[in-house]
Amino acid sequence: MRRDSDRIEQGRWWLKDLARQEVDFSSTGQSRGCPVPPIQQPVPPDAVRVALPRYGEWPHVRDISIVEAIARRESRRQFASTPLELDELAFLLWAVQGVRKVVHRAAVLRTVPSAGARHPFETYVAVLRIAGLVPGVYRYLPLEHELARLRTADARALSVELARAALGQLFVGYAAAVFIWTAIPYRTEWRYGVAAHKVIALDAGHVAQNLYIACEAIEGATCAVAAYDQVAMDRLVGVDGREEFVIYLAPVGHRRSAEEE
Q1: Which of 11, 25, 180, 193 has a CA that sits 20 to 30 A from residue 163's CA?
Q2: What is the spatial distance between Cα 116 and Cα 198, in angstroms, rounded to a whole number?
Q3: pLDDT, tens digit, for every residue of 13-71?
Q4: Which residues of 223-250 are buried (b: 16+ CB within 10 A; e: fewer)?
């Protein structure tokens, strides 16, 4: 019990903004002149790259008001058996991490806010039913607005792998695709040191909320998931679990119709 009590106290301390008062900002990577962390992970040389439809090239995306989108936003765990269209996927990816402007080599402005414009996330997509895409694991390349295919997979096997890595939450494997966000902490630590970790978590919330809102424009369904097997999910997307690790995920798809209920 003492151990749990200590962890709760530590967690509450972390939720506050006390760490900022203890940071020696003269010792951060930025202050010491360390190289700026890349704003996007390099693409494996053997990865197949898929160009995505760009802004204005999304015929399956409805033009709805922000009021309607916010009013209708909810967590949905049931997905239609129909695939998502490629332009719908492109729109959702743009909504969660799209680049609006490259400021300089150290920062970009995106469709979501991030502390210090550090944007510590990479977006992986486990594709199960996307029109025109082979099932497998992909990574979104926001600078190019492309997908890099990291590995192919049997859709059924990948669905099972996803559900197991999500601690048996079967609905995760029933989606058309699963967005899996990893954090690369040093991108934010480079500027904020030990004060980085709270704002990384806050930034993840901004990303997921944009996905919820964007799903309303495609009659979509999503449900953000924070409970998963860390080691299994890191292995699924192929990251080391230390310098880059899964922080959040969300299955997406079309909503189930009354006929499919």
Answers
A1: 11
A2: 13
A3: 999 999 988 889 999 999 999 999 999 999 999 999 999 999 999 999 999 999 999 99
A4: bbbeebeeeebbebbebeeeebbbbbbb
Q: Residue 43: which CATH number?
A: 3.40.109.10
pLDDT at 5: 87
Pair of tokens at residue 108 = 């970009």
How far does CA 221 lie from the centroid of its chain?
16
CA 146 distance to own-chain centroid: 15
How far CA 173 is from CA of 36, 149, 209, 240, in Å, comes to 37, 19, 21, 23
What pLDDT was estimated at residue 260?
63
Distance from C-alpha of 64 to C-alpha of 58, rounded to nearest angstrom = 13
Residues 158-183: tens digit of each pLDDT? 999 999 999 999 999 999 999 999 99
Structural domain boundaries, residue 158: 2-260
pLDDT of residue 229: 98
d(CA 216, CA 72): 7
The reported pLDDT for the residue numbered 99 is 96
Helix axis angle, 196-215 relative to 86-97, nearest 10°? 150
Q: How many CA atoms lie within 13 A of 3 on its CB side?
A: 0
| DSSP H stretches of helix in 174-229 | 186-192, 196-215
Please tell me the distance from the alpha carbon of residue 257 to that of residue 186, in angstroms, as a whole number.
43
pLDDT at position 111: 96
Q: Which of 33, 10, 62 is nearest to 198 (CA)?
A: 10
- Number of domains, the chain: 1
Backbone dihedral angles phi then psi of residue 235, each to the nearest 5 degrees: -65, -35
Q: Record the tokens describing residue 225, joined without a space.
A: 């998931």
